[in-house]
Amino acid sequence: MNGDGSIFPTFFMAGFECSTFIWKDRERKDYISATGHDRHLKNDLAVWRPSTGVWYIQRSSNGTYDIRQFGISTDKATQGDFDGDARTDVAVYRPSTGVWYIWRSTDFGYTIFAFGLNGDLPVQGDYDSDGKTDAAVYRPSNTVWYLNRSSQGFAAQQFGLPTDKPAPADFDGDGKTDIAVYRDGTWYISRSSDSVVTIASFGLPGDVPVPAGYVAQ
Fold first, then answer.
1. What is the pTM assigned to this prediction?
2. Per-residue CA distances from 171 to 72, 143, 168, 192, 198 (Å)
3. For 14-39, what is each residue's pLDDT tens digit?
4. Rounded CA gap, 99 and 129, in Å?
């Protein structure tokens, strides 16, 4: 509103201008497109080829291809937005050493750190709701989840059985990834919003869980 309490003759809703007049350039404004935020609204097609360690990415914004070599055949793909720029970073987890390798999209630099042991399963996600993907592993041998949260630090929680398949995702809509497992057609979800466990039947034994975010199996 103006200082005298009157309403501005223009405002923006969902990124588009709504107004009673036209700008000097005789055009309405689309600030989603103008600021490049539209590139964040679509997922890109992408595959990782373990035999060569090459990532093939087809960008939805302009149809161009991004092809890069990153990782070795025994790595697990662990892509996520680790630097918080709203773009997915190419990343891998090396089970033999417990080392994470992240190719940051912000500056194309590398982040390399150890978090996990041989036999752990990567379960990356945003466990503290700060807009950044956190490195995390599930250890089937003791059924403990180990979280390296970017804002709230280290955390560990026991949840599941050794034969469960980890299936983390934000099931309760609070912006935090929930610890969850899939067991022969039954889902067990530890909600981050209230620490209550939700149990739901969906699927058959042998199915692979595919919640909102994919994790390496």
1. 0.79
2. 32, 20, 8, 9, 10
3. 444 444 444 455 554 444 444 444 44
4. 23
